[in-house]
Amino acid sequence: MKTRRLLAAASLMATALLVAACGGGSGDASGPVTLTFQSLSDQPAAIAQTQKIVGAWNTAHPEVQVKIVQAGWDSVYDKLITQFNAGTAPDIVHYEAAGIEPFAEDDYLADLTPYLSQAKRADFQKGVLDSVTFGGKVVAFPTEVQSYVVFANKKLLQQAGVAVPTGKTMTWDQLRQISKATTKGSTYGLGWGLSSPTAAFVALAPGFGGKYFQGTGDQANLTVGEGETALPKLVDEMAYQDHSILPVTLTQSGSKALAPFYAGQTAMTVQGSYQAANIAKDAPKGFDWVVLPPLAGPAGPAQAASPQTLSVNKDSAHVKEAAEFIDYFTNTDNLAAMNEADALIPPTNSARQALATKLAGKTGWDQILSSGQYITSAPYLFASKYPQWKDTIATPAYQQFLAQKIDANGLTTQLQNGWKSVTTN
Amino acid sequence: MRLLVRPAQYVALALYILFLGFPLLWLMSASVKSSGELNSLTVNLLPQEWHWENYTEALTRQGLLHSAWNSLLVALASTVLSIIISVPASYVLARLKGKVRAAGVGWILVSQVFPVVLIILPLFLILRTLGLADNLVGLTLVHTTYMLPFALWMLQGYVAAIPTELEEAGAMDGASRFTVLRTIVFPLLAPGVVATAMFSFVSSWNEFFFALVLLQSPENYTLPITLNTFVGGEGRTALGPLAAGAVLAAIPSIVFFSILRKKLTGGLMAGAVKG
């Protein structure tokens, strides 16, 4: 990532003479202001909801018109880095907390702290707001967040004589026991798509007291101790001691691990909470599924998430108006509607409550929304080298560990030495 | 035994065609499957139920047809431009001797080693200064520039394969340089031009990264950029509509190839030079 930024910066300097200064939004003193909003919403319902929110804003604010520019998630980082370097970034940027850190570090994002009311600050889940606060400045408003939850085939649990857990939370030990109890014949207790395991392990580490990172930017340090390795070890034990995880799923993506779940090959699956919408749509007729209570480790049910975000381009000619639009976009009703459309969790308590009321009794939503209250800050979001470490060091190391090519000590060594290598290059 | 040879050849050919065509067959199959079937363990070439809604969604979502039209304009324009420039240039490259040719060949090779990410930003800034950023004309120029080295490389190989004796024979018969080029070289070069045009068209039609960065407005998006919006965040992909979109996206290329296929005949020079 840093290399790309250096290349981009070098190219920029070499061609700086060609560039005329340029701003974001348009509009002059006599006409209405037009703000560009680069939206990444990809689900048809979410696209429609975004248009609805923008339409309502445009009707209520004839002097500040918002124009949606639809873009895709894939390769959006490359698009944004070019836009920011060239001075053509949109006024309002839709992205995610894990992606905006480099832009915040390079001072491309406006400080939204003055536009964040006390009421809204109190309404945001603290950990979620922490994830968009860089150097004491709030550089984005979180809009949607996902947690990891356990989906279960009710029929298979009942057949194994297992009562569906109903508490506020469920321990990992309970999950392990249920997984063992439901493993019979060709049916496995659990399917977990861990082809890219780093995101899940890092997000779920707080439940075991794991943090992985301390510090920010290039000064961030990595610690791999008991709290960090507890979950990988648990998965390893369930897979190779209990034999209660369908082995092939360890090499699959999360979405791919749904197919054996639908087919009754696995009784449970750990997935991003948004999969509730896909399960409701794709599961065979009569498939009776539930979402189990949020998972809790010895340190509680906390999860470190990377929320989707809306930021304002610092070079926008209309930072104030753009911030006001973001404030409007993240009001209770809009957040509830957006998250319902995207099958994600609102990052504010009021929107989560509104959605819980609206969707009360709808399969899975109670537990999914309940898991949202345990979202905590994510230290990895502040480590500049995290994306590089994740892709080049951590994911291969975890894959080797899950394939039993290396043991826990080997995993720890690879993770730590790998961090040293990416931070010293 | 000899009776079995011909059927065996046909069987081998059929298997080879099946091997080559299977991914396309599978794509077409996926384009008419429901989301539930696509996300199940069932493996069927023929869908359990035909789900044409994928095509409806692909066509209605994000303006796929408009993007296809943009792609077609850019691909055709950049193909024509690159052929117009590379045909005479490749002839010069192939026939020229000395340092100028070496420098030309060197430039072609060196131009291929720059990573796209290195040149995209200055390119973007230059185009913006010229008022050609977020513009199909600008993208056409970029595609032409990017394809030109390879087109030159390809065509100069074809030119080099045309025996100089044919041109000398024409000259001996009193034909001018232009007449020699028009009546001897260009007809023999036609298959090479067609192959290069095909390559250029497909390269431009499929090009993603330049279009991603240079095009800001949805009304200017090309097909790969629009198809990209079917790949969602959080690993969510609308597989059915994406497959349907990909099938639709393949049609113009297939048509283009069908039109030019007959021109791709080899052996034009067989027997042209008698020993």
Question: What would you note in describing this structure?
Answer:
- The complex is a heterodimer of chains A (425) and B (275).
- Chain A has 18 helices and 17 strands.
- The model of chain A is unreliable at 1-28 (pLDDT under 50).
- With 425 residues, chain A is an alpha/beta fold.
- Chain A has a 5-stranded mixed sheet. A 4-stranded mixed sheet of chain A has the order 9-12-7-13.
- In chain A, helix 2 (44-60) runs antiparallel to helix 14, helix 15 (349-358) packs antiparallel against helix 16 and helix 17 (386-402) runs antiparallel to helix 18.
- Chain B starts with a helix and ends in a 14-residue tail after the last helix.
- The radius of gyration of chain B is 23 Å and the shape is flat.
- The longest helix of chain B is centred in the first third of the chain and has 32 residues, at 64-95.
- Mean pLDDT of chain B is 85; it is low at 266-275.
- With 275 residues, chain B is mainly alpha-helical.
- In chain B, helix 1 packs across helix 12, helix 4 (64-95) runs parallel beside helix 7 (136-161) and helix 5 (99-111) crosses helix 7 (136-161).
- Chain A: Pfam families: SBP_bac_1.
- Chain A: This is Sugar ABC transporter substrate-binding protein.
- Chain A: Residues 1-21 form the signal peptide.
- Chain A: Keywords: Signal.
